[in-house]
Design brief:
FAD/NAD(P)-binding domain, single chain, binds flavin-adenine dinucleotide, alpha/beta, four-stranded parallel β-sheet, 3 domains
């Protein structure tokens, strides 16, 4: 088989030193951050396959999806954890060099088109690669169907019957195959074009309640689609805007008890104290409380974790992933205009071509299916280490949005970056051989 043959050829690479074999499944922002972290922190020769079902690395920055603004300001989008202002600086230098602007104050506060964020990630990817002559990267198009632990490592089984074995696999499959972003944009444009040609068209229904829904709806309006739009969302609320931010909040010790109820009681209590003391906005309180929840999380029994996953996670995500203020205002105006309204949830998989799936809910069940494990036994640690019934699944980590299907976060890019660096440092492959730093 082709992949088996490629793997065998790679193993016979001249130069003799054994290469660690790593796969990163998913080439979205989390997969790219992982591969950059590997090149900067894994100090031994390795071969990495970057596998995506459809998208080339960085494809989230292509076409109309790339014109949509990032939900987070530039200050929160650095891919280098030791340099939080890296993206702001890159942005300023790039825009000045291109002559796009002659002076740029406060680049850290800007929400940029995602194409620019993609260019930044690809630039850092290229720089890291140029520092690592001992690293071999392949980008592969293929849909991973199963991940099976075996004596020599983790076997990746592809949908077309191919397979290959790796020492370590990072799963960065984000919103999965059922909710791929490119499909949402494509189908929304096609449906809008069809409806615009009809005399008395039914409404266009967009299912979802997050940044993807906001970006697609506003883009359709910008392109002149004037038909009625129904937004089908269980919560029936708009995505939330960013707050003003408030540094330096102080929290008390979390409870030692192993109960989610106690954890939330503690968080509520800390929120009230913080709000009273700092006059903080809910956004600041939610962020600080979320950070504390991951501390509490380590002591929670599996039944409590499952309760969180089933009943609280969706709401937690809704209040943690936020839009730029301007996008939120335009969205609110759109609903006030009466052309767009909320309706009860609908099945996005119906055959009705006027119903478009714009959801962004990473599915723990899909992850469990990929691993052939019982979802009720699965959990993920701080570094993305996957566990089943409390026991580590050797050679497997989940990073980025897909990891947040099992635990509280990461919900922001900075959290994802911290997680992937911790994950890379935690893999037992981190040998002793030194190479140049990126
Ligand atoms: C308008 C807008 C603005 C946004 N702004 C931000 C922002 O500022 N910060 C931020 O962090 N996020 C932002 N996002 C979300 C962001 O684009 C990512 O989707 C999100 O961060 C999750 O990234 P990810 O890499 O974990 O997953 P994804 O982006 O979902 O990527 C996962 C990849 O895995 C592939 N895949 C899935 N299953 C398989 C499989 N079985 N086999 C092979 N490949 C598979 C998919 O094809 C996909 O390319 C924004 C989204 C939108 C719509």
């Amino acid at each position: 088989m082709f992949f088996e043959r490629v793997a065998a050829e790679d193993a016979r690479c001249p130069g003799a030193s054994p290469m660690a074999r790593i796969a990163v499944v998913g080439a979205g922002p989390s997969g790219l951050a992982t591969i950059i972290a590997l090149m900067r922190r894994l100090h031994r020769p390795f071969e990495a396959w970057m596998i995506d079902a459809e998208d080339a690395p960085g494809a989230f920055g292509d076409g109309p999806a790339g014109e949509a603004l990032t939900t987070e300001p530039a200050r929160d989008l650095s891919v280098l954890p030791e340099r939080p202002d890296d993206f702001s600086r890159w942005l300023k230098d790039t825009l000045l060099a291109a002559g796009t602007v002659s002076a740029l104050r406060g680049p850290q506060d800007i929400h940029v088109p995602r194409a620019l964020f993609r260019d930044y990630l690809m630039a850092r990817f290229g720089e890291a690669l140029s520092q690592r002559p001992d690293v071999h990267i392949r980008t592969i198009r293929g849909t991973v169907r199963h991940l099976l632990a075996e004596a020599g490592g983790v076997r990746l089984a592809f949908r077309d019957g191919e397979g290959a074995v790796f020492d370590h696999v990072f799963i960065a499959t984000g919103f999965g195959m059922a909710q791929r972003e490119a499909a949402s944009w494509r189908e929304a444009f096609a449906a809008a074009a069809r409806l615009s040609g009809q005399d008395d068209p039914p409404p266009l229904t967009l299912v979802g309640n997050g940044p993807r829904l906001a970006a697609i709806l506003l883009d359709l309006r910008r392109r002149g689609f004037s038909g009625a739009v129904e937004v089908a969302a269980a919560a029936g609320r708009l995505p939330q805007p960013h707050g003003r931010g408030h540094e330096g909040m102080v929290f008390g010790e979390p409870p030692t008890s192993r109960s989610l109820r106690d954890a939330f009681r503690y968080i509520r209590q800390e929120c009230s104290i913080a709000e009273a003391r700092h006059g903080g906005q809910w956004q600041t309180v939610v962020d600080a409380a979320s950070a504390r929840l991951s501390v509490v999380w380590r002591n929670l029994p599996q039944a409590e974790r499952n309760h969180y996953r089933r009943h609280i996670l969706r709401l937690h995500r809704h209040f943690s992933v936020r839009l730029a203020g301007d996008i939120h205002r335009r969205l609110a105006a759109e609903f006030e205009s009466g052309r767009t309204r909320f309706v009860p949830p609908r099945d996005p998989k119906s055959l009705d071509e006027t119903v478009i799936d714009c959801r962004e809910a990473p599915s723990a069940r899909a992850l469990a299916g990929l691993l052939g494990r019982d979802v009720a036994l699965l959990s993920a640690g701080d570094c993305g280490q996957l566990l089943s019934d409390g026991a580590p699944l050797r050679g497997l980590s989940a990073v980025g949005a897909i990891a947040s299907s099992l635990r509280p976060g990461p919900f922001t890019f900075a959290e994802t970056v911290r997680q992937v660096y911790r994950g890379v440092l935690a893999v037992p492959l981190s040998g002793h051989r030194r190479v140049s730093n990126g």
